[in-house]
Write a structure and sequence with these properties.
There is one protein chain. The chain folds into two domains: 265 residues, Spore Coat Polysaccharide Biosynthesis Protein SpsA, Chain A (Alpha-Beta Complex); 80 residues, no CATH class. It is 31% helix and 26% strand. The strands form four sheets. It has a five-stranded mixed beta barrel with strand order 6-9-7-8-10. The longest helix is centred in the middle third of the chain and has 17 residues. The two termini are 37 Å apart.
Length: 351
Amino acid sequence: MIALIMAGGVGTRFWPLSRESNPKQFLKIVSDKSMIQMTVERLLNKIQIEDIFIVTAKSQVELIRKHIPELPEENIIIEPFGMNTAPCIALSALYLSRKYDAKETMIVLPADHLIKDEKAFLQSLDIALKSAEDEYLVTFGIKPDYPATGYGYVEAEQEISKNVFSVKQFKEKPNLKTAESFLKAGNFFWNSGMFMWKIETILITFQNYLPEVASLLHEISKKWDATGTCADISDEYEKMPKLPIDIGIMEKAEKRVLIPVDYGWSDVGSWKALYDVSQKDENENVLNCENEIIESKNNYVNSDKMVALIGVENLVIIKTEDALLISSKDKSEDVKKIVEKFKKDRKEELL
């Protein structure tokens, strides 16, 4: 089995800690190891480091080398620039097809997700492998424990083998009422963004459902044949459709299955999500700083300075050397809007 870790994002919802120069996947936000280090170590229980690949932006290559120094240099796949997960996975599958037999199986996963039960995670890979070898596109569906509105969902249909279900449809992030109906139905799962398939299966699927991507891959392959995989492919890559793999491929494909899993997963997609998975004190606060607290509860604080809280609830407070974020915990996903405004106002020093 080959592993492909997607590590090109910026993690704008984790501003001001996450910056373009040090994105979320390189932060130590849930342990004394960075998110990408945790992801690689989890895989090393089943996959050798020589068979683990990381696809990332050119600007993050040095960070990859710093955090995963044991990774072979040729196992870093470089995107000229971010173009969403469909182009990222297509480029990586092409790269892997030149190094492996195309019948080899690959697991695709983000660099910045939390998985608490590593044993259950590894067992789910074994379950998925048989389906991938039978030329299915496999997605891992997280068993929901509350009506989340921040995740997409996958609806499972009939069980076609033990713990393997056919997929009826993918659903975008729902409103609360719809999410409650999904939870009640019992056959809807959170879309984890993790997949498994054979290299040749996904490349053929791109030909069938995103032929413009397959055509651009052909042009990229010719450049690689001529001058090697260090060739400048910017002209071809910028023509790729900016589509997530879910919309570009998984919603359209026919041979797709879902493996339900329950291993303490979180995409840690916002400060609130990080609060939810963090250890709390007797007042349900998470305090990563020197502090004094009076009648305050349900807060998340990360600061390089001493913080005193008096009579406040449900706040996110993040203090760095050059910025201070104060937000309602329930509105913390909107941090990305602040970052978008910085970009519009050309405040590069804050990005």
